[in-house]
Amino acid sequence: MARSGPPDEGEPVLEDIVGADGDEDEVEGESRALSLTPEERAKQEQWRREQHDLKLQLVEEDSEEVQSWGRGQSGDPFADLHHIAGVDISFEKGTNRACAMLVILDFPELKVKLVSKASVEMVEPYIPGFLAFREVGFLLQRLEDVRQHHPHLMPQAILVDGNGVLHPRGFGLASHLGVLSGIPCVGVGKKLFHTDGLERSPEHREKIQSLLKKGDHFPLKGHSGRVWGVTLRTSDGAPNPVYVSVGHKISLETATQLVTACSVKRVPEPIRQADILSREHLRIEKQKPSEKMH
Fold it and tell me: How large is the average pLDDT for residues 159-177?
């Protein structure tokens, strides 16, 4: 799955490395769904049942721990938020080799405090709508690595390079990771996932033009009347927005505020750093052709 949208200003494009940002391409997905093997179709049905059961645990409002971030006299909703993570998986183009990356930043300074990474080989097939089943295990391993070796830096929240409830069945990668980890998660997509009538129509593009400064946003309301997320401008210098959705244990309002607070450029800093570092790891590994990825 190739990364969509332009890179941030001043950052190199590595043509042989692509990011799996969770923004599953709708046209590609439809084409892929038609070509599933019998084994993949059986797995799709199994994953559909598991996804349904996990979704029953989903929390789309501020949990007790999220509410605790803002307790005190300051009125700052994030006064007691100190460690925030970004996760990303980048692939070596044309292969199943990838780098699973978790980066922990301090907040609000947004400086990298810890990097947990691993070279991985994808063994599960890519089935549209079930990206999480291919990737979430590797991200949970990164969290466990931090829990075992740096428990004082366990993240209080995770920004996920992909969608949360902005998903055909309301349970994307950010929601999947949140439910399994128990940590508040936010989905951040770089292109609009087409569901419930949401599309990059002329009307949608016109609304984007009305986002004039950092923090400006508008709701993503589908034909059903459901609000799936928000379109958010994250930087005064970057007119292209991102698409924020609830992952788990956090409300859309708080998620929007958090992504805004974590953004210097278009992509929120935790995810941006995870993306940069995962691509760099793959570039270095690719320069060792005689060595097996480890």
Answer: 96
